[in-house]
Amino acid sequence: MPLDEDVVAAIYREHGTALRRFVISASHDPVLADDIVQETVLRVWQQAPKITGSMRSYLFRTARNIMIDNYRKSQRRPQEAEERDLADPAEATGKVDELLTRVLMEEALLRLSMEHRDVLVALHYRRFTVNEAAVQLNIPSGTVKSRAFYAVKALRTILDEMGVER
Asked: Which residue has the higher pLDDT, 151 or 10?
């Protein structure tokens, strides 16, 4: 299949910065991150017609899989004299999964209305009680409970649309 430079450029333009930031935070190697981002975009470009959910979540999952594959390959070859010891594979995979979950959750939260997002952040990230959140947000406690209910419902829908497993 010939490379459609406009499609690849659009993927880089819309998602390249966030994808590179995700890979660097997992690998701590900017050069490796560039290689992984490039491979990710090419793989996703090849699969683009089949992608049904969020392009960004598909990109992040693909990058995660590439990082895990690269790690596994590095463990099969003899370690070079100057290579630093890498973490346990399960630990490395867990860290990448945790980072991916955080990135996807941030993207999902940004798709909520500001009122719903504010309530969820207050209750689940800042660990406020309903009454503390009500004071902080300057709304009645009943409104906090109602918004929290509908915010979680909307968040579940968004995560399903993004193809995020819960």
From this structure: 151
